[in-house]
Amino acid sequence: MKFSNEIINAYADGELQGGEKIEFEKVLHNDDELQQELDDLYALKAQLHNAYKNVELPVRQQYASGRARYAMYAALLLLTFSGGWFSGEMINNSSIAKIESFDPAMKVITEQPGKYILHISVHDKNKFKQTLDQAEMLMASYKNKGQNIELEILANSGGLDLFREDATPYTHRVKQLSKDYPNIRFIACSNAIQNLREKGLEPKLINTVHQGSTAIDQVVKRVHQGWSYIKI
Fold it and tell me: Where along the sequence do coiled-coil regions lie (predicted)?
């Protein structure tokens, strides 16, 4: 059963009641994907709370702190996790006026050229290949131009299988990319690893893969620093 984002958010906020709540929890108990989605949402809310709890709003906007403010930040970040391309420059050029009119205290970081984070979160061999193709294309393009580039490939949830020696068809290619391009970094989400361990599975990662923080923490950090985010 597929729940809407509104229902999932309502449950996370403790606002789902009665039969809807009972039905949601029945499905949640046996749905790993829904559990992961809810975990990511809880992590996002915690991240936003920690990041902005000490930011003081102008007096005229004090009444708008709390729910409406966090909803805006959550909308921006959840948009990045829904797919596609997201970068500091895109926010700055197309949305900064709207953001600043809502919250002048928010500082938008402009894009840092040559810094990318690719994110894969599903077990899909076609997307595994697409992720590595995209990475190699970016690295080769900058190398041919004699320009510097930093690239991170981040995997969580089912996407972690791209980095597992017992689950990926791309072990050799991941190792070769690491050898050919020292400025590429493969990162495995700590939550995804822990979820497998709780199921009695010990993921054997390719030796060029690093265990990082949670996926949401890494994306928030890099986007804040001006990296361009690409969801595969």
Answer: 125-152
What is the torsional sign of CA 80, 86, 88, 92?
Answer: negative
Distance of alpha carbon 204 from alpha carbon 186, whole angstroms = 14
Q: What is the DSSP letter of 189?
A: -
CB 108 within 8 A of CB 157: no
What CATH number is given for 115-231 in this structure?
3.40.1260.10
How many Cβ atoms are within 10 Å of 63's Cβ, its own excluded?
9
Task: Enter the tokens of residue 25.
Answer: 């929890």
pLDDT tens over the chain, length 232 residues: 778 877 887 777 677 778 888 888 888 878 888 887 777 776 666 555 554 444 444 444 444 444 444 444 455 455 445 545 544 444 334 333 433 343 444 343 446 788 999 989 889 999 999 999 999 999 999 988 998 899 999 998 899 999 999 999 999 999 999 999 999 999 999 988 988 998 899 999 999 999 998 887 888 788 778 888 888 8
Domain boundaries defined on the chain: 5-82, 115-231
157: left (phi over 0), alpha (psi -120 to 50) or beta: left
Both tokens of residue 171?
Answer: 């072990």
Q: In this structure, are strands 84-86 and 228-231 parallel, antiparallel, or unpaired? A: antiparallel
Q: Which residue has the tokens 């009444």?
A: 63
Chain Cα centroid distance, residue 163: 17
Other Cβ atoms closer than 10 A to 16: 20
